[in-house]
Amino acid sequence: MRIVVDRDLCEGLGMCESMAHDFFEVDDDDVMHVLDENPGEEHRKMLTAAVNSCPVLALSLEG
User: Fold this and answer.
1) Residue 2, exposed/middle/buried by CB under 10 A (0-12, 13-18, 19+)?
2) N or C: which end of the chain has fewer CB within 10 A?
3) pTM for the full model?
């Protein structure tokens, strides 16, 4: 599985970070960073919830 970010849509709101802080981080400039772009399958449920929480639909999972 791979975490995909649409940088044109991402506003750095941090919902993903609050739901999956081991995988997402928003810096002081409100730029979101993916900490692990290829997480293990055991994290799918948590990451799906984080992706679905994005208010601007900037996140998706592939694979």
Assistant:
1) exposed
2) C
3) 0.93
